[in-house]
Specification:
The termini are far apart. This protein has a seven-stranded parallel β-sheet, sandwiched between helices. Strands 18, 20, 21, 23, 25 and 26 form a six-stranded mixed β-sheet that branches. A five-stranded mixed β-sheet has the order 29-34-33-31-32, with no helix packed on it. The protein is an alpha+beta fold. It contains 20 helices and 62 strands.
């Protein structure tokens, strides 16, 4: 091939005077920052940028950002993002020599044709390089850079490397290390040390070896190219400020290609600084190969056992800056002829439905140079990217010779066009892998220089068809592109589109059936209506337009069933000819911006159960000083009411301000907005926009996913509303705007806005009236907003609690009555709190205090007429008053048999204690003090022996059998008014506590229903639910609360259900325990009930006793339940009446032989 005879024209067309002007303006801003914000202290300046970016970077406190934004001449100020080396992946296959991997993209065939990288330069922005390694010792043939022309670049430009150099004046002699490595600089330190000391990783040596290494042990793709080593890493991270400096110098140095095997997951296509930087860089003719990342897909590690439900399809995690439009995003394939995408290679698409990754190369178990001076294997897209960077400069040699009249930008674009349209889509059998996983496919370098035609897509710099979404679900996708022939003979191609759709399987999520992605594809071409030409002929030195239409509407029913929010429609259009060409396409059937931005579970769903699906990553929360807004700050509650949410900006350090809001994202947002607005007028009191927040994704270290609000940059500024009067209600609103902020409508999205009403409340709740006599304290309390708590203490400091109640009102300013047993005390102290943590303490002495208008009592009843207890345990009976505010009465409580149960009570409730097994009744007689009218309520008390594990776990009346074995068996626990079971491996690292239901035969549609809760380290110590030894779901965290879970059986068969509390190897949080209760099977076809008709006491015979029981039930004296109730309904009319009791009596006396069931 012909060597390039002249260098590219200078990419910086601005004059030195303009550059000086820009720096002068920047210096003026720096002076203003120093004078106004730093007390005239000098800035710790890093770099000034004038070529790719007009700005500067410096080290300073985060607090300065908001103040700097206010200064004149400042367009924006933001924290320098940190980028990471993609975590080295665990290899999918066996190691092989570099000679093998470069062969899979036909680099060795390129060498035979004379394309070896001579005269080409590759910048490797990474962890540095081992300069002494033999792989970089050989001088390349016909190198571009020498000390003379490198010094000319320094003399004619102001490189970022020169600005920060700590060794005096930076010269070419300093930078030039060898003919192979003519440039080596440490942008993090500002010195010449490009060893791996700062980074602590030899990643850069390995990458450089793949790009252009050359010795007898390993030969890189472009082994005669020069390597410019730009060290930017400190530990595993690199600051954007340093990377930007290296990129700007790449433009000054006019390198042919750069390799960036680094990034941060879930990148944006258009970022406020990254995208313009890469556009200017590529406009200068610098080709950018950037790693897609090693994070698989977004659901990896989620609460759904890493499954991606088809109601949340946005699972792409392609890294930034690979996601930038101007970067060529590289996926990794296996080091084999199959070229299978590796399991770890990051999937696309981007948040605006772009095709990323775009091309693929070997990246698995690649053997190349390492820092010690030897050779070793590494895996990841970091290893695939230098295959492409090296390939770029080989194809660039061809383009320079074939297209000498193109501009440098056009040549760079031509290189990428040839690489992509000749890439070979890899397949599983006959079905290509997803476009979102492999882009155009595996690079084929010889095909790229052998073709005499390429594909050109209107309004796209690269050959890829990005179709957007089909919001109306019309199903029609039209694709148009040109085939351009730059050869001397006409070319004919067969046109063969293949349409791909995700495979989806059904599984249970949160107890409901849902379809989940299998991350494999199916060929649905035959199920679509395709309109296309069979062949296309392109004249010599001409072009032909090709249009292919894919109509997926014949599949609409299937698509809508399995993909409720829409489906990816993707695939390839292949042109088969002398040298095959292809173009990938990607569209979306449905509204891409319609499905949920935020995770679907909120903290109040624990109480309201309004969420359709559980949290995929975490529960969204809003707090004031560690207290969830609207959740009782004094005790455990059972009921959530939005209007109770309040704060008290009184300076007491408790709930003074809204200061902690956490929102988990299912999708990237360009802007996340916090707002506080007046609930009535809509006046905005506070707003904060946080840019560029990414969806939940588990990183390579399996760190917990962080929500928006968890770090200093994204957290809400504490808002107190201290300037607002008491009683003012505001709305705290969080909104996520997807990319395309100006056009995105959050209200049209399923879940892009969440809000909480909050009331300013500084007023303490008060005791209105009390009456304390004979050990009973009756007290009335009220708050201007909502009372939350009433506690009775024996000391004024309120540290010795006698009794307390959590209060859950539904009306502002309500007055409520509470009754406590205080024993023989003469003085107690009553603490009354509200939902904003205001509280008062009142000294209460025997007698009465305060004032209260009497309200006449007209009747009483119990909340429940049946109470079941266990021996030695206490339950509660609560009175219902008519009217509810009746307050002028006395109550006498009696037990019909104190040997079975005892009772002690007051005006509102009584404590009933089980003594011995048996049944008795408790009666309350309430007498109005003024009228003398008395009213009676009676409840049946059943006392049982201490419960078994089966009794604790079954829903009442259930008969499932459970077993628990091992070192940490489940045990019975009385909690939250429940008889439940709990795990016992608290605090034991790497342990499990398991309970299992006996195997049972079920039909499709049968459901297992249970209640569970956990108190544990979030995302690590988990209570897991298994079906036939496969994990279905899990819960974790310190505030899960009791939640109902429902699992639906998919098919007939035998099922074993198991619950395991699994602890990891480190931290304990909360109670470190899981609980279960109320487990039952809900049958599609219920089995015949096991009872004898008429046998109300379920003893196996029908006698007079059964008739009496039925009669007492019909009179309301007792309540028959479960099978006893079914047995009593002998006439089959759905209720047990006097008629049933007479029929049972006649049957018992032998007067009838059978019951006349309707």
């Amino acid at each position: 091939p012909t060597r390039r005879c002249s260098r590219k024209r200078r990419c910086d067309t601005r004059s030195a005077e303009l550059t000086a002007q820009l720096k002068a303006k920047q210096s003026a801003v720096m002076t203003e920052i120093s004078n106004k914000l730093l007390g005239k202290a000098a800035l710790d300046l890093c770099y000034q940028y004038t070529l790719l970016f007009n700005g500067f970077s410096f080290k300073g406190e985060y607090r300065l950002i908001s103040e700097i934004k206010k200064l004149s001449g400042v367009a924006n100020c933001y924290e320098s993002w940190s980028y990471e080396l993609p975590e080295e992946a665990e290899a999918d296959g066996e190691p092989s020599r570099l000679a093998t991997s470069v062969g899979w993209i036909n680099a060795d065939d390129m060498w035979a044709l004379g394309y070896t990288g001579q005269g080409q330069t590759i910048a490797v922005i990474d962890t540095g390089i081992t300069l002494s390694h033999s792989n970089f010792a050989a001088a390349p043939a016909d190198p571009h850079f020498n000390t003379t022309n490198l010094q000319q670049v320094l003399d004619n430009n102001d490189l970022c490397a020169e600005q920060r150099y700590t060794g005096g004046t930076l010269t070419a002699q300093n930078l030039y290390r060898s003919a192979k490595i003519p440039f080596g600089y440490n942008y993090y330190r500002g010195n010449l040390d490009v060893s791996h000391n700062d980074a602590g990783s030899d990643h850069g040596t390995h990458v450089s070896s793949i790009c252009a290494g050359n010795d007898n042990s390993a030969r890189g793709v472009a082994y005669n190219a020069q390597i410019l080593s730009m060290q930017v890493f400190q530990g595993s991270g690199a600051e954007w400020a340093d990377i930007l400096a290296a990129l700007e110098d790449c433009a000054y140095l006019q390198v042919d290609a750069l390799n960036m095997s680094l990034g941060a997951d879930c990148g944006f296509t258009h970022d406020e600084d990254i995208d313009p930087t890469f556009e200017l860089l590529t406009a200068a003719g610098v080709n950018c190969a950037v790693a897609s990342g090693n994070s698989g897909y977004a659901g990896s590690g989620n609460n759904f056992s890493s499954s991606i439900p088809t109601f949340n399809l946005d699972d792409g995690v392609t890294s930034t800056p690979a996601s930038a439009v101007a970067s060529l995003c590289v996926a990794a394939s296996s080091d084999s002829a199959a070229a299978t995408p590796t399991s770890y290679s990051s999937w696309g698409t981007t948040s605006d439905l772009r095709i990323k990754p775009e091309i693929m190369a070997p990246g698995d178990n690649i053997n190349a140079a390492i820092g010690s001076g030897g050779y070793g294997t590494k895996s990841g897209t970091s290893m695939a990217t230098p295959h492409i960077a090296g390939g770029m400069v080989l194809v660039n040699q061809f383009v320079n010779a074939q297209f000498p009249n193109l501009s440098e930008t056009e040549k760079m674009q031509m290189v990428n066009t040839l690489l992509m349209c000749t890439a070979v889509p890899s397949k599983s059998g006959s079905v290509p892998y997803s476009v979102r996983w492999q882009g155009a496919g595996q690079a084929d370098l010889t095909a790229a220089i052998s073709t005499r035609a390429y594909i050109e897509v209107p309004d796209c710099a690269r050959p890829k068809l990005e179709l957007g979404d089909d919001e109306a679900k019309a199903g029609l996708f039209t694709m148009t592109f040109d085939v351009v022939n730059f050869g001397d003979t006409a070319l004919t191609y067969n046109v063969n589109p293949i349409v791909l759709l995700d495979n989806a399987t059904s599984r249970s999520i949160g107890g409901r059936q849902a379809y989940v992605l299998s991350h494999s594809m199916q060929n649905v071409t035959s199920q679509c209506t395709i309109t296309k030409p069979n062949t296309v002929t392109v004249p010599a030195n001409g072009r032909t337009t090709v249009t292919v239409t894919v109509d997926v509407s014949p599949m609409a029913a299937t698509l809508d069933q399995k993909f409720p929010v829409g489906a990816y429609i993707e695939g390839y259009i292949s042109l088969t000819g002398t040298v095959n060409l292809s173009v990938p396409f990607l569209g979306f059937y449905g509204d891409w911006e319609g499905f949920s931005v935020f995770d679907r579970e909120y903290y109040y769903d624990t109480y309201l159960h309004t969420n359709e699906w559980p949290a995929e990553w975490g529960v969204n929360t809003a707090k004031a000083h560690d207290n969830l807004l609207g959740v009782n700050p004094f005790g455990t509650m059972t009921d959530f009411y939005f209007d109770r949410a309040s704060i008290s900006p009184n300076g007491d350090g408790r709930m003074d301000a809204i200061d902690d809001v956490r929102t988990y994202l299912l999708r990237n947002v360009e802007v996340f907005r916090y707002e506080v607005v007046d609930a009535e007028s809509g006046e905005q009191y506070y707003v904060k926009d946080v840019g560029w927040q990414i969806k939940g994704v588990e990183d390579g270290w399996f760190n917990a996913v962080e929500p928006v609000g968890a770090d200093e940059y994204s957290m809400i500024d504490p808002w107190s509303g201290s300037e607002l009067p008491d009683g003012t209600s505001v709305i705290l609103r969080m909104t996520g705007f997807m990319q395309g902020f100006d056009e995105f409508d959050p209200e049209a999205n399923e879940n892009a806005v969440w809000e909480i009403p909050v009331t300013i409340d500084r007023e303490d709740p008060q005791v209105v009236y009390w009456n304390m006599q004979n050990g009973e304290l009756n007290i009335y309390v009220s708050d201007n907003h909502y009372t939350a708590f009433v506690g009775v203490y024996s000391n004024a400091a309120c540290t010795q609690l006698i009794a307390s109640e959590v209060v859950e009102e539904h009306q502002r300013g309500a007055m409520t009555m509470h009754s406590f047993n205080v024993g023989n005390r003469q003085t107690v102290y009553v603490k009354v709190g509200d939902y904003a943590y205001n509280y008062s303490v009142t000294t209460v002495t025997e007698g009465e205090g305060g004032s209260l208008d009497p309200v006449e009592l007209e009747g009483i009843s119990f909340e429940t007429n049946n109470l079941t207890l266990y021996e030695g345990f206490t339950g509660e009976l609560r009175l219902i008053r008519e009217p509810a505010n009746a307050n002028n009465y006395e109550v006498t409580w009696t037990s019909a048999n104190p040997d079975i149960a005892t009772v002690m009570g007051g005006m509102l409730k009584a404590s009933v204690t089980g003594v011995n097994e048996g049944t008795t009744t408790v009666t309350a007689v309430a007498t109005d003090k003024d009228t003398g009218a008395s009213f009676t309520a009676t409840a049946t008390i059943t006392v049982n022996d201490y419960p078994t594990l089966n009794e604790a776990l079954n829903k009442e009346g259930g008969s499932l059998n459970f077993t628990t074995t091992g070192t940490y068996p489940w045990v019975i626990d009385f909690i939250d008014g429940r008889v439940a079971a709990k795990s016992t491996n608290q605090g034991v690292t790497s342990s499990t506590s398991t309970v299992t239901a006996d195997t049972m035969t079920l039909e499709a549609g049968d459901k297992l229903v249970f209640f569970w809760q956990v108190s544990s380290e979030s995302n690590y110590d988990k209570l897991k639910f298994y079906v036939n030894n496969s994990e279905i779901t899990n819960i974790s965290g310190t505030n899960s609360g009791w939640t109902r879970y429902e699992y639906t059986v998919n098919s007939n068969g035998n099922y074993t259900f198991k619950w395991v509390y699994e602890k990891d190897y480190s931290v304990n949080s909360g109670d470190d325990t899981g609980w279960l209760d109320d487990i039952e099977i809900v049958y599609v076809n219920p089995p015949e009930p096991e009872y004898l008709l008429g046998d109300c006491d379920l003893n196996g015979t029908v006698n007079v006793t059964d008739a009496v029981l039925a009669l007492r039930h019909s009179m309301g004296i007792i309540t028959l339940e479960g099978n006893a109730l079914l047995a009593g309904d002998v006439d089959g009319n759905g209720s047990v009446t006097v008629t049933d009791s007479l029929l049972i009596l006649r049957y018992a006396m032998g007067l009838i032989d059978e019951f006349p069931i309707e």
